[in-house]
User: Which sequence fits this backbone?
């Protein structure tokens, strides 16, 4: 530590070179931070709040409906604490581009999602309003909806009996928030009563698309899932029960292998960075051959010279990397606000910082090592003669 | 103050050059290169420039480390950029590949995709009566009512389930897609639970060899053939519509109706006739327009991501190149000063440093593009489109490679400009004195 000012002075010996190198490092870590945040955004939801919830849908296809009567039978399976149901609605608002994530849900749906906070008085009113809908705060903000508004939604799937076409009318009676700001993506949903959906749906009734099951003990989730599937085995509506995490993960895996793409890009970036900073470090040390020899002459040991050059490399990477990640933590909230819920990440995740810092130290050490070894092995007499 | 103005001027020059450069077609770039070559051969300053460049290139070997940083740094930028753009283009090409001007798809009004549409038996009959529909040899209208179901299937070499698109079609479906060819086995027979699978689907999902049996919905289905089409259909499984509807309890409804028109110009009257029918609430689109709409969203996202990643990487590479070239100019300070002292002008020095950087950049760009072309051209990936898996191939073509090279040269231009000007403005006396 006492050599810090010495290392610092060596690092900024040539200001313009260090500045240029730092910008390259910053660019690399900005990219790393952004891509890793996207990866985190896509894998979010695999968290503790989802533990102990199962999603039960048709084994044949996600879109295939299940009988509504199945819910009561699932509730009797030992280990099941609660059962709620949901239907796809496929809502769009005003323009086909404005897709609204909208589900017709059973009255107890919010009991199973304690991470979503719907004020009790609004929930009571919702219970009494047949055409009532509750919307997430982010969605309400996106379209400027307020409690008391009457809104028309077009269903891309289900015609309404009341209007004779695709338009359904809802009364907004409640606005819910996600308790954890990191899950603000969940505020992009609209929920309304399954009963209204069932009565007003011109395509017949009595079906739901999936059940959400709360298990009493998360450790038993797999056993309960098997027991639920056993109810409908060999019937014409076989089910597939899986944990919420597994359900989401299978969706994401099919999108594109995001992890692979991120890793491939970052591999290319960091390989280049390694070469670039390695080259700069080599140059820097070669220039200072003379000074290093002087340091050794006045009594610095070989190991402390090695450590100093190594520390210089690490310091450069940590400096650039920290600035880069700090920039990302400024960009990410803006990006997330602009994306309209597509990217529900508000801050750089702890894991991103951790991996980032590890990368900084590792790359710093790798680029510092060759010049450090060179400095350590420096022969004082020769070095002084060469530099003279 | 003077220095500041000069730097400001350089910055402006750089911006202007970049704007022109992005608009320039490849023929313009070739013309520039030819002009440069003529100038170097025919004029006095040009010949000076070429000899200074030759000297610079001669010392490249001693600077192999920093030169390779420029080359590899730019290769990385171009490689990542071209790979991401190739992904977006491949996806779009696959989805649009099945689209034609003389084929129309009819969906229920307001539906964005097939999965959201429903058509009754009466709707299908009414659509068949519309004008402008081509007929086969027997006089039957070439119309196929179709039903798609996202069927849960085991992925190949994995314990996960994916969603295969199972399409129930009528007899005329084959005539409606002339691209589609059976490459193995035969077509399914109407009335039997037989499947014909696309090559993409066969690659993605387990147990889809000819002769295999798979369970879809409630029933077991036999795979009797494989087809190739080079578009999104290749990710699907095809079967008789009535059998699919029976298995998935869809009655005799369909989701979309595909219509072969007598010609592309028959589309407007066909669409108008459907719109005029008060009983029908449907919308018609040519399949070309329909598929283009389906792929636009995701393709745009991939493109934007590619450009953002490319820009950030390019910033890193520009500063890397600046660093290396400043170092190179500093190392050659005496040499350049000597040249100036014996009468070489500043212009040739600027040109030589810039030319050197841009040649290194070009080398890097070619390297990156070639590696991506070798690795990713034809690389198969799959993604979710709507509810189902779509298999597509990365497409690296000449236009993309040219885009990559343009980026490489732009990075080289910026990375070389400032060091070149510094080299030319170096005071001769101090540079000569310095060691």
Assistant:
């Amino acid at each position: 530590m006492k050599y810090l000012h010495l290392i610092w002075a060596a690092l900024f010996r040539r200001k313009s070179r260090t500045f240029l190198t730092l910008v390259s490092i910053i660019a690399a870590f900005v990219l790393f931070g952004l891509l890793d945040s996207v990866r985190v955004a896509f894998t979010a939801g695999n968290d503790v709040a989802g533990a102990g919830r199962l999603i039960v849908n048709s084994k044949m296809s996600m879109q295939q409906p299940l009988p509504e009567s199945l819910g009561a039978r699932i509730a009797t399976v030992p280990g099941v604490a609660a059962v709620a149901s949901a239907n796809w609605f496929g809502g769009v608002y005003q323009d086909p581009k404005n897709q609204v994530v909208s589900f017709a849900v059973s009255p107890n749906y919010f009991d199973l999602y304690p991470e979503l906070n719907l004020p009790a008085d609004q929930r009571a009113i919702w219970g009494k309003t047949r055409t009532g809908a509750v919307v997430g705060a982010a969605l309400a903000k996106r379209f400027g909806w307020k409690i008391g508004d009457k809104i028309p939604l077009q269903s891309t799937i289900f015609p309404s009996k009341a209007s004779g076409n695709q338009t359904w009318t809802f009364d907004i009676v409640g606005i819910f928030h996600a308790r954890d700001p990191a899950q603000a993506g969940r505020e992009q949903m609209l929920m309304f009563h399954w009963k209204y959906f069932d009565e007003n749906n011109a395509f017949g009734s009595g079906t739901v698309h999936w059940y959400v099951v709360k298990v009493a003990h998360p450790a038993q989730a797999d056993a309960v899932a098997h027991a639920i599937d056993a109810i409908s085995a060999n019937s014409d509506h076989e089910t597939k029960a899986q944990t919420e995490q597994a359900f989401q993960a299978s969706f994401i895996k099919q999108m594109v292998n995001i992890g692979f793409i991120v890793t491939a890009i970052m591999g290319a970036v960091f390989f280049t960075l390694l070469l670039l900073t390695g080259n700069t470090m080599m140059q820097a040390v070669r220039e200072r051959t003379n000074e290093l020899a002087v340091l050794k002459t006045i009594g610095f040991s070989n190991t402390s010279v090695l450590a100093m050059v190594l520390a210089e490399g690490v310091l450069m990477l940590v400096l650039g990397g920290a600035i880069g990640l700090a920039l990302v933590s400024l960009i990410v909230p803006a990006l997330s606000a602009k994306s309209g819920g597509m990217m529900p990440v508000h801050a750089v995740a702890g894991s991103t910082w951790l991996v980032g810092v590890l990368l900084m130290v590792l790359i710093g050490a790798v680029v510092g090592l060759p010049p450090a070894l060179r400095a350590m092995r420096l022969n004082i007499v020769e070095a002084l003669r060469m530099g003279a | 103050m003077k220095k500041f103005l000069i730097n400001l001027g350089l910055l402006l020059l750089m911006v202007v050059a970049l704007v022109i450069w992005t608009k320039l077609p490849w023929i313009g770039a070739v013309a520039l290169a030819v002009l440069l070559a003529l100038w170097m051969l025919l004029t006095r300053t040009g010949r000076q420039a070429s000899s200074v460049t030759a000297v610079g290139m001669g010392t490249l070997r001693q600077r192999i480390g920093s030169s390779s940083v420029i080359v590899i740094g730019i290769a990385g930028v171009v490689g990542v950029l071209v790979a991401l753009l190739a992904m977006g283009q491949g996806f779009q090409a696959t989805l649009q590949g099945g689209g034609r001007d003389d084929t129309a798809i009819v969906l229920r009004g307001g539906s964005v995709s097939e999965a959201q549409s429903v058509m009754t038996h009466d709707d299908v009959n009414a659509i068949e009566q519309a004008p402008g529909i081509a007929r086969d040899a027997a006089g039957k209208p070439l119309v196929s009512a179709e039903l798609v179901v996202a069927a849960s299937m085991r992925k190949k070499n994995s314990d996960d389930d994916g969603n295969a698109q199972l399409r129930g079609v009528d007899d005329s479906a084959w005539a409606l897609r002339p691209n589609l060819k059976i490459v193995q086995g035969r077509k399914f027979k109407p009335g039997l639970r037989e499947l014909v699978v696309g090559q993409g689907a066969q690659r993605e999902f387990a147990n889809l060899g000819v002769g295999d049996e798979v369970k879809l919905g409630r029933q077991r289905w036999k795979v009797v053939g494989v087809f190739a089409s080079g578009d999104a259909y290749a990710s699907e499984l095809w079967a008789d519509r009535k059998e699919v509807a029976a298995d998935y309890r869809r009655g005799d409804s369909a989701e979309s109706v595909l219509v072969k028109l007598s010609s592309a110009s028959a589309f407007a009257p066909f669409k108008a006739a459907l719109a005029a029918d008060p009983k029908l609430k449907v919308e018609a689109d040519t399949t070309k327009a329909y598929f283009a709409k389906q792929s636009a969203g995701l393709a745009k996202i991939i493109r934007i991501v590619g450009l953002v990643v490319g820009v950030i990487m390019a910033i890193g590479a520009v500063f890397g190149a600046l660093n290396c070239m400043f170092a190179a100019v500093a190392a050659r300070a005496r040499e350049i000063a000597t040249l100036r002292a014996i009468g070489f002008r500043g212009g040739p020095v600027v040109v030589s440093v810039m030319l050197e950087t841009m040649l290194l950049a070009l080398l890097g760009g070619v390297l990156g593009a070639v590696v991506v072309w070798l690795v990713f051209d034809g690389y198969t990936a799959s993604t979710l489109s709507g509810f189902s898996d779509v298999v597509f191939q990365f497409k690296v073509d000449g236009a993309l490679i040219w885009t990559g090279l343009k980026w490489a040269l732009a990075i080289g231009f910026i990375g070389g400009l400032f060091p070149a000007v510094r080299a030319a403005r170096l005071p001769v006396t101090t540079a000569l004195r310095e060691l």
Observations:
- The first helix of chain A runs from residue 4 to 11.
- Chain A has two domains: 4-45+256-387, 60-237.
- The mean pLDDT of chain A is 84.
- The first strand of chain A starts at residue 53 and ends at 58.
